[in-house]
């Protein structure tokens, strides 16, 4: 709004400036000064994301001593610091955290040590030590959060109650409005693997509003809000029906060069390429997370590899996946991990040469008096080893060396004593440890001649 003041006196030398012009000019200047005074600066250690593809992704900047500066903190945790950044910006779940652009030499940055628990509403509530500095040779931090969907009250980044952002607030989703194809889109949007469980009330009830549409995803959309929706037939969502979702872990970790998917050098897919993973003091915790994420049991041994530029991980040991650990880049020995489920499950089969085997209602059946053979076999992972054939009908066991990764156990003249459950146990000594793996049960019924 323009404020008019009375004309000021002016001399003949100022004849080009009319009183009205001076009034308008002074009014605009006065209004601008008031407007500038009304805008307060951000709070110290506020955060923002810049140069990203969405409002919830980009390079992290921190407001410190009156200006925005890039953050080049080396250690960030997806479940702690990154989770707080996403929450402070009213975004969804952390999706990715990586190094951003290289810091220009001599450029001022912010290098504090920020330590969060993960429940804080802003970075300012975390423990912060340090301040401005130079980040020569370092990289800024880059964060990606989901924009309009999140999983809350779950055990990790890939499980929880589904909530959708609507009119700047978060709403839970009713189980009746959400199906398996919708779940596929959410899991993909959050950087997780395929859906593993979908159930109402699985992760509690939301305290706010409920989403009032039914999702109709095809399963190939990139974002949940890209899916078609329709009006809900029933306008109420009964208690216990807020949908909970568990996604499998993303396949971004592998073990290479060990002859098994559960043994070898640890690599993580990061920024478009597979990078060697290393650790310093907490190698046991890192290895435990790797074996857990791979579904390979527990850690048996850890072998240091060659020193190289690695993706350095620091874990507490309780994380469900490696991307939930602290990460940085460093010159360290790579990490080779051997997990307990090293050997694949062997196969067990029943054959005979005289036609005495046939398939009954409960499984394979054998005529009395006929010869039969039980064969144990496994995939060609490692040379050697042996097979133990166990029989639950008695304490009898049979052992044979593995020849070409298999062993055949011959039984003459089947009788009632051969009826029962059989299994193959494959044993092998590799990586200076004994490993074993057991097949499924084979139930054999002996019937009349």
Distance from first to last alpha carbon: 106 Å
Number of structurally distinct domains:
5
Contiguous low-pLDDT stretches (5 residues minimum) are 1-37
Label the CATH architecture of the largest domain.
Sandwich
CATH superfamily of the largest domain: Immunoglobulins
Category from helices, strands and their pairing: mainly beta
Helix content: 10-25%
Sheet with the most strands, sense and barrel status: 7 strands, mixed
- Indicate the overall shape: flat
Protein name: SRCR domain-containing protein
Membrane topology: Single-pass membrane protein
Domain SRCR: 47-146, 149-248, 253-353
Disulfide bonds: 116-126, 217-227, 315-325
Describe this structure in words.
With 449 residues, this protein is mainly β. The N terminus is likely disordered. The protein folds into five domains: 38 residues, no CATH class; 99 residues, SRCR-like domain (Mac-2 Binding Protein, Roll); 99 residues, SRCR-like domain (Mac-2 Binding Protein, Roll), CATH 3.10.250.10; 87 residues, SRCR-like domain (Mac-2 Binding Protein); 101 residues, Immunoglobulins (Immunoglobulin-like). Strands 24, 25, 27, 28, 30, 31 and 32 form a seven-stranded mixed sheet that branches. The longest helix has 20 residues. The protein starts with 18 loop residues before the first helix and ends with a strand.
